[in-house]
Amino acid sequence: MPAKNHDLHGSVPESCPIALVLVDVINDMEFDGGDALLEQALPMATRLADLAARARKSGVPVIYVNDNFGKWRSDFRALLDHCMEEGVRGSPVARLLAPEKTDYFVLKPKHSGFFSTTLDTLLEYLHVDTLIVTGLTTERCVLFTVSDAHMRDLHLFVPDDCCAAQSVEDHRMALTMMRRSLEVDTRPSQEIDFHAIAKKSDT
Hints:
Elements: E1 18-23, H1 34-57, E2 62-67, H2 76-83, H3 91-96, E3 104-108, H4 119-126, E4 130-136, H5 138-151, E5 155-157, E6 163-164, H6 168-182, H7 194-202
Helix pairs in contact: 5-6
């Protein structure tokens, strides 16, 4: 039986084979190891901001998949406002990667962006078959999200310069695991060609 509803009630883009996912980039980093993570995340955020801008220009949906950080009474906007406050450790990253009005957001309770969230439904409505997953941290929430995406038979890219961990070693180890076990393409962000990926997806 075909689905009753094939669009997002006028929201745009209505359909795209690719989506760019930003995992946990709206993050106050107020925890042990936050300083080390910020050191790795800041240069990553500059590159990811460029990638997200190119995605929007190409009509590729940008989806923020973010932890609620235990703030079960908060929504995404409240988290964003908190993380952008002066004096919050993660504010430089949040300011670089603040969402635009056309972007989507999903709050998650655990590591994976798919666990007990609406991400599956959103991707189905957008007709996505390829995910470009980025963000924090490479060996935890990015890895768990990519693993669940792999089990859903999605084509996967994780640009190696658009995710970060507290240590370079953890970052590299997670990327190696993704390449070997999850069939992930980890080419750098400058080599991501949205139009070429979409054209390949249509064939």
